[in-house]
Design brief:
7 helices; mainly alpha
């Protein structure tokens, strides 16, 4: 194994854990910096949705959807150091879910305006960046597939 692959093999799990932590922490921070819910966290929003107080504005099925991002973050932390194809596919799938939900959240919660992002939004953005870095590190740590190594030798 080349020194670069060894470094990436050791670094990738750490970056996955950092990404998962960002996805989890954003749940406890306000997503917007101004407006009605600028002092409310996602936990507060979920509580309001489940209580029915905002039923005329937000459908009840949104509450469980808001929990997918931190749950995926916990999943990333859980599989960060596991080796193998299945673990790598789980990391890619969870990372993709997080990135898609990040895009949707920024679009719907702050109208795609970075100026309105609060600490939760910026934390989730850092999670997105860490996820992209971890995906790249995972790929370079894996190296070339075995069937390609054999055909070029």
């Amino acid at each position: 194994m080349t020194p670069t692959r060894v470094r990436n093999h050791l670094l990738a799990p750490l970056v996955w854990i950092v990404a998962g932590a960002f996805w989890l922490v954003q749940l406890f921070l306000p997503w917007t910096s101004s407006g009605t819910f600028s002092t409310s966290t996602m936990v507060d929003g979920i509580r309001l949705i489940r209580s029915g107080e905002v039923e005329s504005v937000v459908p009840g099925w949104i509450a469980p959807v808001l929990l997918v991002l931190p749950a995926a973050g916990l999943g990333l932390i859980a599989v960060a150091s596991l080796d193998g194809v299945v673990a790598a596919l789980v990391r890619v799938a969870l990372g993709a879910v997080c990135l898609i939900l990040l895009g949707l959240s920024v679009h719907y919660l702050v109208d795609s305006d970075p100026g309105r992002l609060g600490p939760g939004g910026w934390t989730a953005g850092a999670g997105g960046l860490a996820t992209l870095v971890a995906l790249c590190l995972d790929r370079t740590a894996a190296g070339r597939p075995q069937h390609l190594k054999e055909s070029t030798s």
